[in-house]
Amino acid sequence: MTHGEVVCPRCNNRLKVPASSGGKQAVCAVCQTVFGISQLQPHADNAHDQASRTNPFSAPQIQATTMSHVASHRAGFVLAFSLLGWFFCPVFSIAAWLMGRGDLRQMDRGVMDESGRTVTQVGTIVAIVHCVVTALGLAAMLLFLIFGAVASVSM
Ligand SMILES: [Zn+2]
């Protein structure tokens, strides 16, 4: 930028001045008012700020930063995983349990969308119940096998 713009304090006429003329004096071509160009730099910054604020391309950036502060919840994902775990493979239940627990903590801290809290809680509880039931079932099976083995050895 080789030229700056100053606004006459009296008639608001815009004057083009060399960018290096800060601290010098300018004479308004319309009203002949003499004024210092010390306000060249702040004025230019102001104009730039306003331009970037009204710039439609800067709006998505603002949205993107607010989106990154509050992550979208994964309630449907957690619930789907807990149901997959219940009907197919307990590994899904463990994943849903860990995922739901982490998401609920993030909602407590306010960094995740709270609208999915109820569904996330349901999914997490279903996953925990299934994990406990599966663990109890495995323990019972293990005991059954051990006692069965002991019984067959003692016969
Ligand atoms: Zn003027």
Q: How would you sum up this structure in a few lines?
A:
Helix content is 63%, strand content 10%. With 155 residues, the chain is mainly α.
List the helices and strands and how they pair.
Elements: E1 3-7, E2 14-18, E3 25-27, E4 34-36, H1 40-54, H2 59-69, H3 75-87, H4 90-109, H5 117-154
Helix pairs in contact: 3-4, 3-5, 4-5
Zinc ion binds at residues 8, 10-11, 13, 28, 30-31, 33.
Reading the helices and strands in chain order gives EEEEHHHHH
Count of structural domains: 2
Helix coverage percent of residues? 55-70%
- Average pLDDT reading: 80
Strand content: 5-15%
Number of strands: 4
Taking the alpha carbons of the first and last residues, their distance comes to 98 Å
Over all CA atoms, what is the radius of gyration? 34 Å
Output the strand order for the largest sheet.
Answer: 1-2
Assign an overall shape: rod-shaped
Low-confidence stretches: 41-45, 61-67
Given helix and strand content, the structural type is mainly alpha
Bound molecules: zinc ion
